[in-house]
Amino acid sequence: MVSPNPLVGCLIVSPGGQVIGEGSYKFDEVVHAEEIALRMAGESARGGTAYVSLEPHSHFGKTPPCTDALINAGIRRVVCPIEDPNPLVSGRGFARLREAGIEVVTGVCAEEAHRQNEKFICWHTKKRPFVHLKLAMSLDGRISIRDNVSTSLSGEQALKRVHDIRHEHDAILVGGNTVAVDDPTLTDRSGKARRRPLLRVILDNRLQTSLKSRIADTAAETPTLIFSASQDGQKRTELVARGIDVSPAETADLHAVLSELRKRDIQSVLVEGGSAVAGAFCDSWLVDKLTFIVAPMIIGGSDAVNAIAGSGVKELSDALYLDVVDVTKRGDDIEITAYPRS
Predict the structure, then answer these.
(1) Set 34, 55, 272, 335: catalytic member
(2) Which of 157, 194, 287, 329 shows its CA 20 to 30 Å from the CA of 36?
(3) Where does 39-184 show beta strands of DSSP type E?
(4) C-beta of residue 47 within 8 angstroms of C-beta of residue 20
(5) Are 104 and 94 in contact (CB under 8 A)?
(6) What pairs with residue 200 in β-bridges?
(7) R_g (Cα) of the chain, nearest Å
(8) Which residues, at least 6 apart from 342, have a Cβ–Cβ distance to it below 8 Å?
(9) 34 catalytic per annotation
């Protein structure tokens, strides 16, 4: 509900240790978490402590400075884990509070806070959307029994989880071959409220997306963007007539793709495949987070499609090493969440 802005929450605690105010930021309400919490606390906030998940801003933007609201409310201490990476804010909010005589404590739960706002932080530090690679696979790392065959591997609980993951992102990205073989809808069916619809992004250099596909049939109500360097002007015109936005960017240039998505205020992208697309993102070191949904089955065989293609590495030392942070059972399937090591 906040993208491309950050997730921010605030608690106001009285001098006696009671929670007297709480608030969280929502993009469309244009009121920051600190202001909401202070309104709830009222005069009882004087002399109290504010716990904020991200550095309060000290500049005039769409709202007045949160630092001024905290100072004027008589807050004596602010506990906040991390700086805001936005150059308009970074460090200035803490400095403003300290200048006003407020004690500022930082670093508490910093790792958790960083992970909570990982998409926003990537947006500012890497100047591109956060890339989350999600793949469903067999235990032996296969996503299909052979090329050009649609294969469903995940159970009901895992499929529900996938839609919860989709809900957390601004865009979902697949290759043109995935659309041609699976004919997916690529929608968020979590049932949860969104501020804006999930953007469907397709890397389709050959412009093979069919006008009879479910993507084309639903493009009028679901935003869809195809990247293609194809010179097929007639097919491009027909897709545009169906409501699909077609960008001429070369799909092999993933940096250009992500740059274009950033221009569209896309803060995060969920990459769902297929094999070639997953490999291209890994080869380019453009993956910020990985989720593998592993089904308890062995497919085997030389024709079965590996989860990640691409060029791969020549030496094991060049492999993409991961830090696994969570392993959760989803019905019969296992969800593994990991981050690339620095």
Answers:
(1) 34
(2) 194
(3) 49-52, 77-80, 103-106, 130-138, 142-144, 171-175
(4) no
(5) yes
(6) 172, 224
(7) 23
(8) none
(9) yes
- Which residue type does 334 have? I
Nearest to 290 by CA among 307, 315, 314, 276: 307
* Contact status, residue 178 vs residue 149, Cβ threshold 8 Å: no
Residues 52 and 69 sit within 8 Å (Cβ to Cβ): no
Cα separation values, 99 from 73, 81, 95, 96, Å: 15, 19, 6, 5
Over the stretch 267-319, which tens digit does the pLDDT of each residue have? 999 999 889 999 999 999 999 999 999 999 999 999 999 999 999 999 999 99
**Cα dihedral across residues 1, 6, 82, 164: positive or negative:** positive
Dump the DSSP string for 42-75: GGGGTT-EEEESSPPP-S-SSS--HHHHHHHTT-
Phi and psi at residue 217, in whole multiples of 5°?
-65, -25
**For residue 151, how many other CB atoms are within 10 A of its CB?**
16
Q: Which residues face 142 on adjacent strands?
A: 306
Indicate if the alpha-carbon torsion angle 225, 261, 137, 204 is positive or negative: positive
Chain center to CA of 200? 14
The distance in angstroms from the start CA to the end CA of the chain is 29
Per residue in 34-90, pLDDT tens? 999 999 999 999 999 999 999 999 876 666 789 999 999 999 999 999 999 998 888
Give the E-state strand segments of the chain in sequence order: 9-13, 19-24, 49-52, 77-80, 103-106, 130-138, 142-144, 171-175, 199-203, 224-227, 245-247, 268-273, 289-295, 305-306, 322-330, 333-340
| Residue where the block lists tokens 């990247």 | 227
The helix (H) or strand (E) run that includes residue 241 is helix 233-241
Determine the distance from the C-alpha atom of residue 288 to the mean position of all C-alpha atoms in its chain, rounded to a whole number: 9
In terms of pTM, does the model score above 0.70? yes
pLDDT-derived band of residue 29, with 50, 70 and 90 as boundaries?
confident
